[in-house]
Amino acid sequence: MKTKTFLQELQLAKTNNYAVGAFNIFNYLSAQAVIRAAEKLECSVILQTSTATVKKFGTQELNAMLRQLAWGASVNVMIHLDHCQDVEMAKACMDAGWDSIMFDGSHFPLEENIAKSKEVVAYAHPRGICVEGELGKISGVEDELQVEAHNATNANLEDSIRYVNESGVDAFAPAVGTAHGVYTGVPVINFDLVAQLKDQISAPVVIHGGTGLEEDVFKRLIKNGGAKVNVSTAIKHGYIDGCKEFIQENPTKLEPLAMDRYISEKIESIASYHMRLFRAR
Ligand code: 13P
Fold it and tell me: At what angle do helices 110-124 and 87-96 cross, to 10 degrees?
């Protein structure tokens, strides 16, 4: 069911101090499980696809599969492309029907990031598609993307304001100290930058690296202005752990649908846990 755009949903979240959950899904089962969690909690949800998932399925095929699920849902389900560094691929996903695109030009110098993000925005906006941009370097691994911890850099306020104003992106993902993947230590997070951005730019702030953050960290990030929170690794864990557990518990059972059900329920409960947290004040 389509009710609001990506930007309208994020603006609403920003104004009312909650966050929209954005979950990286990688097949039909994971997408269905995340949507079921959202339907039970009656909240809007973003299904994110990595560029690796897009390449695996093909743009038309993946959009058709997700769009069909989105249409049938009782809540607003938005289809978003996560961390796309390739302008042509971003355009191909827009042509295929994605609702929003994250153009990740964070590895470019500021000027070039602005220029490339602007090009994506110029293609997206006339088509009614929203764009998320990034500044700074978020450490960790996100499918095809890898940033070593020593290369991670937080965004700064001045560059962030300039980037958002000049590029025209609808939502902004600053590197604030969170990381993709599993945390090996306690992350040092710049909560103040999130709060300053909430006040000083109109674009809602996106928090990457949701897996493994403590509940009070989520709450503080959202209270300070995080309006979209990304969760990927936890969903992948749910899938792989679910496969392992089912096989361990049922070594001789030859019922793929029973295994799918088990994994699906596991992913649903992980998504549901995060959605409840993002809605909590
Ligand atoms: P995690 O893999 O840490 O949940 O991060 C997800 C993310 O930010 C996707 O862009």
Answer: 20
CB atoms within 10 A of CB 244: 11
Which atom number of ligand 1 is nearest to the Cα of residue 179? 3
Render pLDDT for 195-223 as a digit per residue (tens, 0 to 9): 999 999 999 999 999 999 999 999 999 99
**d(CA 244, ligand 1 centre) in Å:** 22
- Structure-derived torsion over alpha carbons of residues 194, 89, 108, 20, reported in degrees to the nearest 10: 0
CATH of the domain at 25: 3.20.20.70
- The answer to whether residue 129 sits within a structural domain is yes
The structural domain count of the chain equals: 1
The answer to whether residue 82 is catalytic is yes
The pLDDT of residue 185 is 86
Residues with CB under 6 A from ligand 1: 24, 82-83, 142, 180-181, 208-211, 230-234
Q: Which two tokens stand for residue 262?
A: 């088990």
**Distance of CA 234 from the midpoint of ligand 1 (Å):** 8
Reduced to 3 states (helix: H, G, I; strand: E, B; else coil), residue 190 is: coil
Q: SS3 letters for 2-36?
A: CCCCHHHHHHHHHHCCCCEEEEECCCHHHHHHHHH
Phi, psi for 28 (deg, rounded to 5): -65, -45
